[in-house]
Amino acid sequence: MNTPTNAIRRVVIVGGGTAGWMAAATLARLLGPSGLSITLVESEAIGTVGVGEATIPQITLFNRLLDIDEDEFVRSTQATYKLGIEFCNWTRLNHRYFHPFGSYGADMDGVAFHHFWLHQCQQATAPPLGEFCLQEIAAKESRFMRADKSYGNSPLAFIAYAFQFDASLYAKFLRRYAEERGVNRIEGRVAEVRQNPATGFVESLQLDDGREVDGELFIDCSGFRGLLIQQALNAGYDDWSEWLPCNRAVAVACERTASPDPYTRSTARVAGWQWRIPLQHRTGNGHVYCDQFSSDDEAIDILLSNLDGQPISDPRPLRFTTGIRREVFKKNVVALG
Q1: What is the pTM of this model?
Q2: One of 82, 140, 172, 330 is an active-site residue; which one?
Q3: Digit-coded pLDDT (tens) for 145-161
Q4: Cβ neighbours of residue 47 under 8 Å, at least 6 residues apart?
Q5: 82: annotated active-site residue
Q6: How far apart are CA 208 and CA 68, in angstroms?
Q7: What is the pLDDT of residues 106-126, one digit of tens each?
Q8: How many Cα atoms occupy the beta-carbon half-sphere of 183 within 13 Å?
C-alpha cells in the first residue's frame, strides 16, 4: 500500500502529564508502526496539575486499546478499583446517593426494570433501588471482581468498573510505554511559537535554550494556558461561570487509614464540593469552590478539617475558569486535556 504524499509524518505534542502521555501512547500504538514521528516537549520545571485521579469505565477501554496488562497497570500506578461514586449532602444534609457503574435489575418480557420498580414505589412496597445493582451492593461491602464471561447471562459476566490511581504515576507509566514504542521526549520550555506568515499554521517551536522543534501536526496538552490553541492561534474560550461558578480548587493528599473503598466520594460543601479518592498508598482529597462565596483560607480549613488521616503534603491551590474552548482543532493544532 502506497503512503499518500500529503500524509502527516511528524507530530509534536506540547505538554506531558496524563493528557500528553495518553496522546503519545495512543499515537505510538496505532500509528507508530507506519513510521509516524512523534515528539513530546515538556518541562519538569513547569509540572502538571496531577489531580485527575478518579476515572469512569471508559478508562478500561483505553487501556485495552493500548494492550496494557491490567495487573501491571494497577501495581505501577498504585491504583484501586472503582465501582461508582457516592454523593453526600447534595440534596440535603446527611443524605447519600450512590451512582454505580452498572445497570439496575433486568428487563423482563421486553419491559424495562424501572417500570416494575416504579410500580412498587406507588404501592409503597419497593426496596431501595440500590439493592438491584450488583456494583452498588459490592461497593458497600468493599468487594470487587472482574467480569467473567463464563457466567453467561449472569450479572457477574457484565461488571463495569473504572480505576482510582496516582495521576503522576500514570503519566510515568504511559511515558515508559510510549518511549518504548519510539516516542521522542524533549525536556525544555517553549519560548516562541513560529507560524507560517501566510497561513498562520504552526511550523515549529523554539525552546528557551535555542533548540527548534518542527512538525506538521501539533497537539496542545499545555492545560489551562493553551500555549498553542489560545496564545498562538487565539481560538477563543466560552466562559461558563454564569452556570458553573466554581473557579478555585485546593488539593491535598493524606494518609490512608483503612482499606481503600472501591468508589470515589463527592461531598457537597457550603460553596462547592469535596472529593475523596482512596488509593493503595494514600488518599487524594480536594475542595472545589467559588471565590465569591468562600475565601481561600476558608476553603483550605474546610478541606483539612474533613480528612480521614494526617495530610502528607501541603495544600496545592488551583485557579481556573469553567467553560470550553470555542475551537479544539484550529489550523494544524488540536487541543487535548
Answers
A1: 0.90
A2: 82
A3: 999 999 988 888 889 99
A4: none
A5: yes
A6: 35
A7: 888 889 999 999 999 999 999
A8: 31
